[in-house]
Amino acid sequence: MAYKPTIGLEIHAELKTRTKMFCECANDPNEDRVNVNVCPICMAHPGTLPVMNKQAVAHVLAIGTAVQGQLADFTEFDRKSYFYPDIPKGYQISQYEYPLVRGGELSGVALTRIHLEEDTASSVHEGGKTLVNYNRAGVPLMELVTEPVIHDAETAGKFARELQLLLRTLGIGDANLEKGEMRIEANVSVSNGAALGTKVEIKNLNSFRSVERAVAYEIDRQAKVLESGGSVKQETRGWNEDTQQTFHQRYKEGSADYRYFPEPDLPKLRISELPEFSSDTLTQQLPELPSARRARYTEKYSLKEGDAQFITASVERSNFFDSVIACLDGNERQIQLATNYLVSDLAGIYAKTGRESYSTISPVAYASLMQMIDAGELSSRGGKDVLAELVIGEEDPRQTAIRLNVMQISDPEALRVVIQEVLSEEVHAVAEWRSGKEVSAQYLIGKIIKKTSGAANPAKTREILIEELAKK
Ligand SMILES: [Zn+2]
């Protein structure tokens, strides 16, 4: 029997802002000292008042514009009450009825909503005790919910990757999963009929690969439960990286009563009354989005789909590529070379060092290296050697090639001089070639390349050699 899996995602992402959501404390995810970015407001002391962080609102409106969602005209914040050590107020300021964004679409997946809330503190479990670090409490957090329209694990992973790329492209979040800056939950159900099956929520997904594997595992698990005549229980499950299995955490009994009510200490917002948040202004401020960038690479520069995908997957990589292209004056062959060297050789160098960074490599130098390779001035081995030097900050590819002794001789006149020398030395081979033994040409090319210490361009050498042989 065929089962139909249905997946919806809930993704939280910390937003990059100078200060926290409702106070002047620094929003610094790299702060190592514990409990230093705290104040009476984020600690919810009586008598304090929250003040809304405009930058955080702007960030959510920017992503809402990028996914072509409907931006709220009226919006407000609500208190979501629950009691837990990581939430000092006893409630979280979130959005319930009036999220900043409704609808929209990303990577072919329809979105339900995007809202803004504050993050909780982080708990550290140590020697049977739980310690709480409040630096993160009150940091602006975006929550994005998709419609339950995903039907396979691969699409779920692809969506999450695209969202990370979008957050980085917009410059509104770093979205590193391993640092908890982006947290993914997947709701998975499997049905054997028209109605949706029972929804199971999977938490603790700390990498895109875990998202894909956990979803695939859960689809399989639920299908087996149904197949054996059982029924799937509504529950929250975790993901065990070691065993590659989901495991039971707790049963969900209905929806918890968070006693949502409008936050009385914050003003209601009418977005349309704020000129900097008009949809025209927001649209104008958007950078080129990843999907548009990919399309530009494949359509304008005829890049292969896979190459365009690889280059745009990192904002830094893609910015570097654009700077290189700007130096190549629309030369398609050189752009193709620049692409090939980027996706294979440069990527290979970075894979070896384990750190991909474009801060030391000059796009101008990289572009001139491509032009030298295109002009046949360097052997292909020489191109790789010079590239390795550019990566560590060398800025003159020509001088580097000369220093490394990898310049290739392609100049016909220079080659002709060497060829004539070899022809006068190799009388026997020349005679053989004239008597119809064509392999003798290969022997002569070998001699010529040897005489130039490997610098003669093989293709050019062959061309001129045949010309010279035919002359006599
Ligand atoms: Zn504070």
- Which secondary-structure class do the elements indicate? alpha+beta
DSSP helix fraction: 40-55%
Bound ligands, each once: zinc ion
Q: What is the domain total for the residues?
A: 3
Distance between the termini: 81 Å
Q: Helical region count?
A: 15
Shape: elongated
Q: What is the residue-averaged pLDDT?
A: 93
Largest sheet: 10 strands, mixed
Rg of Cα set = 31 Å
- Percent of residues in beta strands? 15-25%
Please mark out the parts with pLDDT under 50 across 5 or more consecutive residues, or reply none. none
Please give the number of β-strands: 17
Summarize it.
The longest helix has 22 residues, at 332-353. The protein is an alpha+beta fold and 472 residues long.
Description:
The chain has 3 domains: 4-279, no CATH class; 288-404, no CATH class; 412-471, Arc Repressor Mutant, subunit A, CATH 1.10.10.410. Strands 1, 2, 6, 7, 8, 11, 12, 13, 14 and 15 form a 10-stranded mixed sheet that branches. It has a 3-stranded antiparallel sheet with strand order 5-4-16, with no helix packed on it. The protein has a two-stranded antiparallel ribbon with strand order 3-17. It contains 15 helices and 17 strands. 35% of the residues are buried. The chain has helices at 54-66, 153-170, 208-227, 279-285, 290-300, 305-312, 315-327, 332-353, 363-374, 380-391, 397-404, 412-425, 427-434, 439-451, 458-471; strands at residues 4-14, 70-71, 74-75, 78-81, 91-94, 101-102, 105-106, 109-118, 122-126, 129-133, 140-146, 182-191, 200-205, 235-240, 245-251, 261-262, 269-270. A hairpin with an 8-residue loop joins strand 12 (182-191) and strand 13 (200-205). The mean pLDDT is 93. It is of the alpha+beta class and 472 residues long. The protein is elongated. It is 41% helix and 18% strand. Helix 1 crosses helix 4 (279-285), helix 8 crosses helix 9 (363-374) and helix 12 (412-425) packs across helix 15 (458-471). Bound molecules: zinc ion (ZN). Zinc ion binds next to loops. Zinc ion binds at residues 20, 23, 25, 38-39, 41-42, 138.
